């Protein structure tokens, strides 16, 4: 089999994994051409990634919820409410930021676990329980913000989470040195991880791509990371929002691919009855996944509040739909048991790229909603068709 035949075969077999990357590349190339390069400018890419942060964080948690065959509609207003509580603690109660953030994250875990109890122990469908929670958090958000309407946050350390950038160690040809170093470390880690994974597969006699295909993959992905790093380093470098999002993705990617807990989550999603019979505590997994979703909702609320430097009565509106859309576009299966957190991040960037590109082109908001809805429908249709072919 020659190089091109092998590449075509790999693409066909792994179309679910590679399809979203191809879609993102096509979208970015199209908008770059239509906007005469404005879309790919350092400022726009930096703003796009910062604006994607809180949705990407929610999408990571939503991926696991969908993987175990549930849904959580409360995450949007839960994020808005917990962001407002953080603002109140900082401004009205005078709680330091290094206490506020852990408290809010713990509150998120408690809220998520409560949702998990309703689903796993009482047996309420996740759609109904999370819908009820959404209405409760919507009312709670209005209650805590009704006196002022908007709670202005003037804590510089907190606001830097949503608007600040990594400090620069200097400039080389106008590029942020620390961001260049960070991008280089990411590339080195990626290459090391891929080589290690390949060696493990060879050790246990699994099929692996040829050396040429493997080398092309390493060069292609490394080039993309290097290019994004170069773009960001030419502006203000990596923002704290991007760094936090990358840390969340790295932690959850490790947890879902390298740990027993991760394997149990996917086992429950693939077949809950079989997982229970094999000794997996399905209720415990449900608690953990919903508790995780609550914590990530709290983190998303912190990122959003810090970005706006305020808490508002409308914070969290439609966040849950954006997170669900990002998860599905990123390759999670509606049937459960399939989906990667890395894919959900790509899905979030795809949806954000669509919005950013259409805004630059002056596309009306009504058409934007219709186009994004069409993309989501296409992603789900693609998932269904893929499963039918495999079946």
TrEMBL record:
Lineage: superkingdom: Bacteria
Entry-linked PANTHER family: ABC TRANSPORTER PERMEASE PROTEIN YPHD-RELATED-RELATED (PTHR32196), XYLOSE TRANSPORT SYSTEM PERMEASE PROTEIN XYLH (PTHR32196:SF32)
Function: Part of the binding-protein-dependent transport system for D-xylose. Probably responsible for the translocation of the substrate across the membrane.
Residues forming coiled coils: none
Organism whose genome encodes this protein: Saccharibacillus kuerlensis
Membrane topology listed for this record: Multi-pass membrane protein
UniProt keyword annotation of Nucleotide-binding present: no
Keywords: Cell inner membrane, Cell membrane, Membrane, Sugar transport, Transmembrane, Transmembrane helix, Transport
Protein's recorded name: Xylose transport system permease protein XylH
Keyword Transmembrane helix assigned: yes
